[in-house]
Design goal:
By secondary structure, this protein is mainly α. The chain is built from 13 helices and four strands. The longest helix is centred in the last third of the chain and has 32 residues. It binds zinc ion.
């Protein structure tokens, strides 16, 4: 995904935490996290773009690449929260519960490591005296939240979880991502001099004439029920992101049938697929799921810190 798409998803996750119906027992945590974020919104773009611009760990940490493999003993698919659209669709996939191999990538490890490091940084901040040079700053921690959102969002891009390469020749991967970025840029007021969004009075990206897709996602992320839990069998960020990557892989095969790879999927062929004809439908599911996951992982991180702070 591209720069403004990543930043927009992070903003939408804050909006979901503020405006969706959060279950009573998690509401105080969600409210305090949103309040804390409000001071750091200018870091959203640089933070959520840091992995691509500075870390450049795309070949390993932005992906988990799956391939169907009859000979593999790897067949277990995780149970996820029922609110995730990729999960609902994946349960109906012909590849669901079929063996697979993971050929590359450590995206789930990266997300787990970031989640842990944010909790640790908060603990250091609270422990050290103000001004102590080893103490991390709130600015730094907020930036790490937005960096984490980048990896979570990438996991929801189906082609990041598919071992078939669509990044050469027709480069459908880049094509889809630039179509998305165009929609973000068309729907919000951008302060291009300062590389950020203009904000509305609530501190969210200021809307202009919204595309149908962007408007649908804005609505979905507020209306979709909020489940705090990871899903049966997932105990932490690593488990959860591993599960997301499995259903993202199934989504990739739903979008682009098994007979295609970079050698035979030109833009012309792609335009004939259902995936292109229903681009907005797939995109809405992918974006809304990404926002759901970012909000869920962030809230768990924050809750762990708050739990510790109470002790
Ligand atoms: Zn990336």
């Amino acid at each position: 995904m591209k720069k403004y798409t990543h930043a927009w998803l992070a903003f939408m996750a804050i909006k979901r935490l503020e405006q969706a119906a959060i279950p009573q027992e998690h509401r105080a945590n969600a409210q305090s996290l949103v309040k804390w974020f409000k001071d750091y919104r200018d870091f959203v773009i640089s933070g959520s773009w840091y992995p691509d611009q500075v870390f450049k760990d795309m070949a390993t940490s932005h992906i988990i690449k799956y391939r169907p493999d009859e000979k593999s003993k790897n067949v277990s698919f995780r149970k996820m929260p029922g609110t995730l659209r990729c999960y609902q669709l994946g349960l109906k996939s012909p590849l669901y519960q079929k063996p697979f191999t993971i050929e590359a990538g450590n995206l789930a490890d990266r997300c787990e490591a970031f989640a842990q490091s944010i909790v640790d940084s908060f603990k250091m901040l609270r422990t050290e005296d103000k001004g102590n040079p080893i103490s991390p700053s709130n600015n730094h921690i907020a930036t790490r939240f937005f960096i984490l959102s980048h990896y979570i969002a990438d996991c929801h891009m189906p082609l990041h979880c598919d071992a078939r390469s669509f990044s050469m020749d027709g480069n459908i991967h880049a094509f889809i991502e630039s179509e998305w970025d165009k929609q973000v840029r068309a729907s919000y007021e951008l302060d291009t001099d300062n590389e950020r969004f203009f904000y509305d009075p609530q501190g969210y990206p200021l809307k202009k004439k919204m595309t149908a897709l962007m408007a649908a996602v804005e609505q979905e992320i507020v209306e979709r029920p909020f489940k705090y839990e990871w899903g049966t069998g997932c105990k932490n960020t690593w488990d959860y992101m591993s599960g997301v990557s499995q259903y993202s892989y199934l989504m990739a095969y739903r979008m682009i049938p098994a007979e295609y790879d970079n050698t035979n999927l030109s833009k012309e062929t792609f335009r004939g697929l259902d995936c292109w004809k229903e681009f907005d439908t797939y995109s809405k599911d992918i974006f809304s799921d990404a926002v759901e996951s970012i909000a869920r992982v962030w809230l768990h991180v924050w809750a762990r810190y708050r739990q510790w702070a109470k002790m």
